[in-house]
Amino acid sequence: MTNYLLTGGGTAGHVNPLLSLADAITAQDAQAKVIALGTAEGLESGLVPARGYRLETIERLPFPRKPSAYALGFPFKFLRAVAQVRALIRKEKIEAVVGFGGYASAPAYLAARFEKIPLVIHEANALPGIANKIGAKFADVVAVAFAGTGLAREQLTGMPLRHEIEAITVRRNQAEARKHFSLDESTLTLLVTGGSLGAKKLNDVIEASRTKLAAAGIQVLHIVGGKSGLTPITERGYVRLAYCDRMDLAIAAADFAVSRAGASTVSEFAAVGLPAVYVPYAVGNGEQRFNLQALLKAGGGVMVLDKDFDEQYVASQLIPLLSSAKQLNEMAKAAASVGIKDGTQRLLQLVLSVLRQGKKG
Q1: For residues 348 and 21, what is the distance between their CA atoms, to the nearest angstrom?
Q2: Residues 141/143/149/151 CA torsion (nearest 10 deg)
């Protein structure tokens, strides 16, 4: 029996890999104790308890970017959070900390160092976040979803995938998946998704291109996100959903996708062998572009800048690509060639290896 503290949260990109590892740990050792650490504001506050795991929370402490009253008080709040995690580690006899980034992770990383217990970090993006940059300086090992992050002691494990995604990497029943969404079982299918909140640019362009796509014999499964304002529609050749709770079936149903380039999306599409046009999110530090490097080099996807993705692009580039069965098949094989299907088990074995080395030491 081993006691683990898994830390990370704020977004699904941090929480889902954490939960995948938690499930793998308990499947491998039913006596293992798994505690998650996050904040009360992040998605983990709902997702972790719903999966049956205990969640401990600390204050949400973004790193200050400029001088302010918050910046002056930040060091004291941060050290208090570290002390809180150290107390948790001692009380629960935690033997290893595994972090996935996010606001709760940096205090946990320092707590693990001060308590002299193994620390493993998983970095989902090709361009690392600040918490993982800090923790990587003293972590035992850093597991990465994409090679070349520049973090010390990195080992490529890929992304821990959700169970349902792992299942369709083994068996993908496209006809049944299409039937689930009331799509025609034998028609070329395009999946469009901008994530749980949606992507206005993708939604607007696809909405304006529906007639052209239909004329080309392409049916569309369009997941617009919860804040799009677009109403759900089910009609011949076009299905629009505000939210999809079966993304595994959406991916299984598709021959091709148009999507943002978040780490989880890129990893899941590649693992399944689903080629896509990726339109990286144009705001922030640009990490989504870096997530695509290996996939683009292999030929498993195409990247188009947000400003260049418009009706003209759909007509002159996307529809001709979708109309070439040979090209789609080649891209699917290329995507699968760089996809990692067993990221959860790779990460678990890395954690167990670090634990064994620590016990030998």
Answers
A1: 7
A2: -10
Residue 197: the pLDDT is 58
Could you please report the per-residue DSSP string of 21-64?
HHHHHHHH-TT-EEEEEE-SSSTHHHHHHHTT-EEEE----PPP
Domain membership of residue 82 as a residue range: 3-161+342-360
Q: What are the CA-CA distances from residue 99 to residues 61, 63, 131, 162, 259 (Å)? A: 16, 17, 9, 17, 27
Q: How does strand 233-235 pair with strand 238-241?
A: antiparallel
Do 325 and 215 lie in one domain? The reply is: yes
Q: Say how far apart CA 110 and CA 114 lie, in whole Å.
A: 6
CB neighbours of residue 163 within 10 Å:
13
- Round to whole Å and give the CA distance between 357 and 25: 18
Residue 195 is part of a domain; what is its CATH number? 3.40.50.2000
Same domain, 182 and 232: yes
- What's the rounded mean pLDDT across residues 250-275? 96
Asked if residue 141 lies in contact with residue 355, where contact means CB atoms within 8 angstroms, the answer is no
Band (115; pLDDT cuts 50, 70, 90): very high
Number of domains forming the structure of the chain: 2
Find the mean pLDDT for residues 196-224.
Answer: 91
Q: Are 9 and 22 in contact (CB under 8 A)?
A: no
Residue where the block lists tokens 């998605």: 43
- State the Cα–Cα distance between residues 117 and 189, nearest whole angstrom: 49
**Measuring CA to CA, which residue among 46, 291, 334 is closest to residue 159?**
291
DSSP assignment letter at 68: S
303 in helix, strand or coil?
strand
* The pLDDT value given to residue 42: 85
Reported pTM: 0.93
